[in-house]
């Protein structure tokens, strides 16, 4: 059970972080993104419910505050996802940062 719950939580975080700064974080597309979330895990139901509402780094951070382990993980990887967005706009390379996949 523990491994499946952890995998479900990482899936929620992966979907959330990969959708940031894309059209999947717009209000009209949140339902599409949220359909990808599993309905079990340590974050489920309260954490998943809060993460379903997020659209930027600040709201992700607020949703993860009760989950210190996941908040710490988010703080470690958020630069990767910010840099990934800026690369498409001619910004810095993502190679200097770690993704959530690198850490799990």
Automatic annotation (TrEMBL):
One GO location term (cellular component): proton-transporting V-type ATPase, V0 domain
GO molecular function term, any single one: proton-transporting ATPase activity, rotational mechanism
Superkingdom, natural source: Eukaryota
A Pfam family of this chain: vATP-synt_AC39
PANTHER family tied to this protein: VACUOLAR ATP SYNTHASE SUBUNIT AC39
Record-given protein name: Uncharacterized protein
Organism: Spumella elongata
């Amino acid at each position: 059970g523990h491994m499946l719950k952890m995998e479900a939580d990482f899936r929620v975080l992966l979907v959330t972080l990969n959708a940031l700064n894309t059209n999947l974080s717009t209000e009209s597309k949140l339902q599409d993104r949220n359909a990808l979330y599993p309905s079990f895990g340590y974050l489920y139901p309260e954490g998943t419910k809060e993460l379903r509402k997020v659209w930027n780094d600040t709201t992700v951070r607020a949703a993860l505050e009760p989950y210190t382990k996941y908040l710490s993980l988010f703080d470690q990887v958020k630069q990767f996802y910010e840099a990934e967005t800026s690369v498409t706009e001619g910004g810095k390379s993502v190679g200097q940062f770690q993704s959530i996949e690198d850490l799990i």
